[in-house]
Structure formats: C-alpha cells, structure tokens
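Closing statement on the BIS(adenosine)-5'-tetraphosphate sub-project.
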Amino acid sequence: MINIILFGPPGSGKGTQSEKLIEKYNFRHLSTGDLLRSEIAAKKPLGIEAKSFMDKGQLVPDSIVIGMISSVLDANPQAKGFLFDGFPRTKAQSQALDALLKDKHTEISLFLALEVSEDELVKRLLNRGLTSGRSDDVNEEIIRARIIEYENKTMVVADYYKQYNKVVTIKGEGSINEIFSSLCHEIDKKMPL
Ligand code: B4P
C-alpha cells in the first residue's frame, strides 16, 4: 500500500495535480478542502462551523478535520493507497494521521511538497476566484491571510516528515504537465516492481 501526502501552500496546485494522479495511479483521493466544501453545500452543522473559519482564510479546527479523515479511512478498507491532498495542515493533524495509519498497519510512503512563489499563488487564486464561486478566493486580503496561516501553522508539517526522510520538494511553477511528470517520477520510485 502506498500513501502519499501532496503538500504546498494555498493555490500551489494540490487539487489540480491530485485529479491527474488519482486517474493514473487509482489512489483513493482524500481532500479535506473538498470534504469541507461538500459539508457546507449540504448545510450540515459541521459545514456551517467550518465555513466561518474558511471565509476568513483561517484553518478549520483540528478536531473537525481529524474526525472527518478518520471516518473516510474507516469507510475504505479496500483502498490500494491514499492520496492526501491538503491534509495534514498542522503538526497535530500529522501526529493524528500517523496514529490512524499505524492502526491500519500502514504509513506515509512519500511527502511531495510543491514550491510556488507568493506572487504566483495570489495571481492563481484571484484568477480562480473569478469563476469558482469560492468565498475564500475572492479578495486578496483573505488570500494573503491563508498564506500567513500556511506560514505560521502548516510549514512545520514538512519539518515533521523530514525527520523520517520522506520529503521530496517539487518545483510547482511551469506547465501542469511538467509538474505532473516530476511528481510521477518520484511516485514511480516508490512503486513495487
Ligand atoms: P484547499 O481546498 O485544500 O485548497 P487550496 O489550498 O486553496 O488549493 P490547491 O493547492 O488545491 O490549489 P489548486 O490546485 O486548486 O483549502 C481550502 C480551505 O479549506 C483552507 O484555506 C482551510 O480553511 C480549509 N482546510 C482544508 N483542509 C484543511 C485542513 N487539513 N485543516 C484545516 N483547514 C483545512 O490550484 C489553484 C489555482 O491554480 C487553480 O485555478 C488552478 O487551475 C491553478 N493552477 C494549478 N496549477 C497551475 C500551474 N501549473 N500553472 C498555472 N495555474 C495553475
């Protein structure tokens, strides 16, 4: 079983690349952003609580996100491998994920970190905001708040996995296909022959 974390700041292309990776490798895609947005669309209590944080560009509390991930892992005992997109985003989430995977006798195989400059991130997200209808993409102030949350709370997640030698950095600027092929190159090295 191969479990991959696709990591990077908001707008670095995690969602974009995940779509291509799950098609190629048949991983079970687990995006906390998508899960939260579907709770919001369904007007569930968890979604209503999460929206108040997301609209301000803040991270949703760990307890909410960890509970959601735990349910999806339990619901997919047959998965050949998971692609975690946008999770973990704090050290507490990383520790919780390791414990959940250990219970299932598996672990993270590879941590792929997309690197993109701040100017490019802001440009991409403002551009997506023109059509996505996402309230967290519409103004630059909220986008900058998301980047600050990333710097303050999420960057430490890469340090956490570095201690286990699982981190590979990938240049996240260039064409979508170029970045995809760099990601595949690293994943293929981990694939059983
Ligand atoms: P997410 O849904 O995870 O999304 P994201 O960080 O905004 O973007 P992503 O990196 O996936 O970018 P994308 O591919 O779409 O998070 C949203 C919010 O949910 C968070 O702010 C937080 O509040 C909450 N949340 C989620 N997970 C959480 C957790 N674990 N804990 C707490 N809170 C959590 O790309 C962006 C744009 O760039 C797109 O328009 C795309 O077309 C474009 N693009 C992609 N690659 C490109 C390239 N190579 N060149 C040019 N443009 C490109």
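Residues 2-190 form a domain with the Rossmann fold fold (CATH 3.40.50.300). With this model delivered, the sub-project is considered complete and its resources will be redirected to Aim 3.
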